[in-house]
Structure formats: C-alpha cells, structure tokens
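User: For my dataset I need records formatted as: sequence, then structure tokens, nothing else. Please produce one.
Assistant:
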Amino acid sequence: MIITRAPFRIPLGGGGTDLPSYYSKFGGKLISVAIDKYIVTTLNTPVIDSLIRLKYSNSETVESISQIQHTFIKEALKLTGIKNGIELSFIADIPDKTGMGSSGSFLVSMLKALHVFKKEEVTTSHIAEEACHIEISRLKNPVGKQDQYIAAFGGITQLIIDKKGQVEVVRLKIAQSTIEDLEDSLLLFFTGIQRSSTKVLSLQNNAIKSGDKKVLESLHFIKEIGEDITKCLKKGDIKKFGKLLNTHWAYKQRLSSKVSNDKINRWYQKGISAGALGGKLIGAGGGGFLLFCCPGDKNKLRKVMKDDGLTEVFFHFDFDGVKLLGNF
C-alpha cells in the first residue's frame, strides 16, 4: 500500500498570469501559499486479478486504460506507463469546484504515488511539470501552472514563469513571526457555491489571445500587485498586504463578468465593513471560498459571515508540499 498527499492552495497575488496565453507573451509572476487541507491518494495492487479499480466520487472497475472514464487518471496512467493491475482511491478534505486548486492537487498526489509504485525517483519539479502537461497539453484545459506547482512544493512560494513556460520556484524567506501573523490574519469562508472554473478561465483565455486591452492591462497590474505583496510579506507588513488584496480583488473583477456576482459582492462588502482590510474570491471566480485579511478583532467578521450562511474553514500553512506518507 502506497499513501501520498498533496495540499490545496490559496493564491495571494498575481493569479491569472500563469496561463500559457499570458506568460507566453509577457511572462508570469505570482505568489501563493499551500494549506493543511489535502487530497490523499492510496494505491494498492490487486491480489487475485489484474483489473484497474478506481474510487473517487464515483467508482470504476475496468480491464484496460482505454475504458477509464476519469480523464486525469487515464492520462496519468498513460504517462507513467502503467497498464493494469492497480487500485487507486482518493479522499479530499475540500470538495472540488471550489477554487482551491483541486485538479492540480489531485494530479500531483496521484503522480507521486504512481512513481513510488514504479520505484522511480523523480524531482518535485518533474511531478509538477507532468501534472501541467496532463492538464494543459494533453487535456487542453484552460488552466495555468500555479495549482500544480504549489501542490508539489508547498510553502509560501513565488513562481516566476518565462515565455517558454519554464518555472522558477522561489521559496520566500519570511520571518517566523510574520508567518504566524499572516496565518492568524487570514480567514477563509466557504460560500456554498460549487462551480466549474472552465467557463471563467476560457473567457479570460480568449480575451488574452484576442489582445483585449482591458483584460491585459488588468493582468499586468495584478502581476505588479503580486510583486508588491511579496515585498510586503518579506518586510512583515500585514496591514499593507491586506489593503493590496483589496486592490487585487478590484482588478480581478475586470477580467470577466463571471468572476463575481451580486451575492458575492454583498458578502465581500459585509466583510470589509466588519473589519477586514481586504480579501478576494479564491480561484477563477464565480463561487467557492472567500478569503479575508483581518489582523484585528475577528469576532464581528466571523459573526457576519456565519449569519449569512457561510462556513469558516480553519487552516494552517503547509510547508511540505506533496509527500509520501507510507509505503507498506
């Protein structure tokens, strides 16, 4: 039995510049943090047959890879050259379609398990790139490289992507006191809305490809804000970080009319009125989780969100990234 896990992530700044349509022209730069909410993969080999058994939100038992319905699993098995005689099961702390980078975490956790199964030693970057290759190149999904890399590396991490798609992973040197203050200041609330990011990202992707001036200018500015956020965290200025999140959210909404809606805007304004310095909707938009930065008293913010039916998810940062938990 092989058990692996990969964390979910919270984007802090520069999101959207990791899309190939953007970084291939301008280069991408962003900062994100992994949290202690995970996707866990368990891999077994069948005792009495050579079937492929899969357990995720559905179950599959098939004789060959070509019969697999789950496209991520099918492509991962193809990529690693495993043909049959395997059992895979997946458990997640957070449901998919909530903006937390679940697809990237799913792939990274699974690929780690598959390489351990094959007794292959591969680098963390290799696993991240394989996950990107499956989503972006093989499946043609309109996604970037943030989710896969943060799931693989963990930590408070800056990604610098050149025009050829090469990713430089920068593990930020931040004082422990700042890490603790940041962790204490960030509050995460589930809106109860699950949605596919494909529509939002497709619109953004098409706008970039067509040279939409408004979208491109917004992404350029979002990239600059991401750099400013990185500098703030290095200096330990949480209050300025919170205010930058507010600006970041304003520009993110300019990327597409699908990013937010009246309900989300109302929740956001209530959060600001309750003491948050800034915040943002996690992921592409349209639902999922609301993140707020509230360095001061948080009781009012928590009460306002609870009264409106939002559920708080408590978390700590994860600095391990993808991890082998056991090989029995």
